[in-house]
Design goal:
Elements lengths: L5 H21 L24 H7 L5 H4 L3 H14 L3 H20 L12 H4 L2 H9 L2 H7 L1 E4 L2 E5 L3 H21 L14 E2 L6 H19 L10 E10 L6 E4 L5 E8 L2 E3 L2 E6 L14 E4 L5 E6 L2 E5 L2 E14 L1 H7 L10 H27 L4
Helix pairs in contact: 1-4, 7-8
The protein binds fe (ii) ion and zinc ion.
The site of zinc ion has 8 residues, from helix 12.
């Protein structure tokens, strides 16, 4: 972890890491969790890994670490996690951490209140009420399933959308002025920005943990909705001098939250074409899987990352959407051992139904043959 002062801080971090590494070698994590440990909150610190990962790891800390201060605990856990990454990934993680630190230490936010999630400043009252009640009924009262697996609900206040748009403008102005080379959100978008890279990661962690995970636990439990533990948060921009449309694809997420922030625009509809596992990603779409959605500012769409989709051309105006790709490490581990995804893949479920029908037919034929066989 780097504390955000450029090169010298980067160097000092390496010294700290080396010192900690020396202690790590003689201190290990507990084999069994200590369930009496009440997880601390680290979200105010600059973290190299998602906050929930630290919270979960804490119960495995050795007793002497539990009594140390928060910064030391974070350094200890970060070092343990980094030591488990393959060396290529470790240096990639370090480089990315340095990149973020450079931005965070130089960029002056416009609306600091955005960087700590204050629910009443972000969400419409109906959404807040449903989350506070936290039941399937309360979610269903505000969320409509526009098409199987595509959930739509009012989420963000207009004032929050405006603040976010202004913050993104401000960030882009800073990028243009300083000529800082930023990484774009993904391989498909040439415009837009990664919100996590300029300090909004803590706020988005909270958004995932306290708001999106409870909903996903109910509607997307089959793809790890209850165990979402990391995210990639970004904005995409469409219109003149920006990206125009987005081809047919699946997201690198278990659950995707897509909220339109504004502004005035024509077109840009999202088109959905059924959910598929890796093996079946290029199979044909069935007629009941075709669904088009028109963006409304402040309104959210929640869907499985494996739900195939794209965005039609934004023919005029300027459209900005905020995306949160939510991931579950435990679901990804489990998925490697599975072959049947019939609970959510349209093609796997079709194959399973056909297999069942074939088995049933074979049993029926055997039975008919036995009944009609000449008696001895
Ligand atoms: Fe997408
Ligand atoms: Zn499949």
């Amino acid at each position: 972890m780097v504390d955000g002062n450029g090169t010298s801080a980067g160097n000092s971090h390496q010294i700290v890491s080396a010192a900690v590494r020396a202690t790590v070698s003689c201190r290990k994590l507990r084999i069994n969790p200590n369930n009496e440990v009440r997880p601390d909150n680290y979200e105010d610190l600059q973290l190299d890994f998602p906050n929930p990962v630290y919270k979960n790891l804490e119960k495995y800390l050795p007793p002497d670490m539990l009594v140390s201060n928060r910064e030391e605990r974070v350094r200890f856990m970060t070092d343990i996690m980094l030591s488990h990454l393959p060396s290529g990934e470790r240096s990639k993680a370090q480089k990315h951490s340095d990149y973020r630190s450079k931005i965070v230490s130089n960029y002056q936010p416009l609306h600091r209140e955005l960087y700590n999630l204050v629910p009443r400043l972000c969400f419409v009252p109906s959404f807040l009420k449903a989350i506070n009640e936290n039941t399937e009924d309360s979610f269903r009262s505000i969320i409509s399933e526009a098409s199987p697996g595509v959930f739509v609900f009012d989420m963000l206040l207009p004032s929050f959308c405006e603040m976010m748009l202004a913050e993104i403008d401000n960030f882009e102005k800073w990028v243009a002025e300083t000529k800082f080379r930023i990484m774009r959100p993904n391989t498909m978008n040439k415009y837009g920005a990664v919100l996590d890279d300029f300090g909004l990661d803590t706020m988005l962690d909270k958004l995932m943990e306290c708001f999106i995970r409870p909903i996903s636990k109910v509607f997307f439990n089959d793809v790890g909705g209850a165990t979402l533990d990391s995210h990639h948060g970004f904005v995409v921009e469409y219109g003149k001098d920006r990206d125009v449309d987005l081809g047919f694809h699946v997201d690198d997420s278990e659950v995707t939250l897509n909220v339109c922030l504004g502004n005035q625009f024509v077109g840009g509809e999202l088109f959905f074409r059924g959910t598929r596992c890796e093996k079946h990603v290029n199979t044909a779409t069935k007629s009941d899987e075709i669904f088009d959605y028109c963006h409304v500012p402040g309104q959210a769409v929640l869907h499985r990352g494996r739900h195939r989709h794209g965005a039609r051309a934004t023919t005029s105006g300027h459209r900005v959407n905020m995306l949160l790709w939510c991931r579950s490490s435990s679901f990804r581990e489990l998925q490697r051992l599975q072959k049947d995804f019939s609970s959510w893949c349209g093609e796997c479920s079709c194959e399973k139904r056909e297999e069942k029908a074939r088995t049933f037919d074979a049993i029926r034929k055997k039975y008919v043959k036995a009944v009609h066989a000449p008696q001895a």
